[in-house]
Amino acid sequence: MVEDNNIVVSQKIIYKNKLDLDLCKKAFDFVFELKDKFKARSWDCDIKTSLNCTNNILNVTELHPLKLNVISHIENHMRQNKLFFDGFISQSWVNIYEKNFYQEFHTHVSDIANFFSGVIYLTEKNSKIVFDFVDGIEITPEFGDILIFEDDLPHRVVHNEQDLRISLAFNYKKCDKWSGINLEE
Fold it and tell me: Strand, coil or helix: what is 182?
């Protein structure tokens, strides 16, 4: 089901939209030059990630314009769903999937914070991302797509059939819920 760029699965909203494609191309070029520096993680899957270099790659100067574009989409997601939080991107990392690489079902839940989680797609051809165990929905992302969803929504990446799939994931930390301004008093 799609509503205002939203997909609903298991009563949870996945925001889907397009980022500025020129910014995505610049980000791809930057990340592609660094990809051999990224290392495999001890997760239960085949993936290379930038987390060995930094826990917030969107803070790198070369990616700052993309970060601002991402923040505008987070704000659009909150506006569309009338759910506002002060917050910030607390973590961001690149995921490199070579041929046959995948990622298992996981969430971004933390014991100390709640997040909007998201993924940006920096390659033309991407393996599917699957959301939820029960009511599973598959999305085949395209270059420049951004997906934003609640941190507790299970998701995985199916085996990559392409030579290379590059995505950039992030967590937007929800600090204070904002309910608006009361002008009645």
Answer: coil
- Model confidence, pTM: 0.90
Q: Is 28 helix (H, G, I), strand (E, B) or coil?
A: helix
User: Are 52 and 39 spatial neighbours (Cβ–Cβ below 8 Å)?
Assistant: yes
**C-alpha distances out from residue 106 to 20, 93, 103, 182, 184, Å:** 28, 15, 8, 39, 44
Go through 8-39 and write b for each residue having 16 or more CB atoms within 10 A of its CB, e for each that does not: ebeeebbbbbebbeebbebbbebbeeeeeebe
User: What is the sign, positive or negative, of the torsion defined by CA atoms of 81, 27, 52, 168?
Assistant: positive
CATH superfamily placement of domain 2-178 = q2cbj1_9rhob like domain (2.60.120.620)
- With tokens 């909007």, the residue in question is 116
Q: Which tens digit of pLDDT belongs to each residue from 111-159?
A: 888 899 999 999 999 998 999 877 789 999 999 999 999 999 998 888 8
Helix (H, G, I), strand (E, B) or coil at 129: strand
Q: Residue 72 CB: number of other CB atoms within 10 A?
A: 13
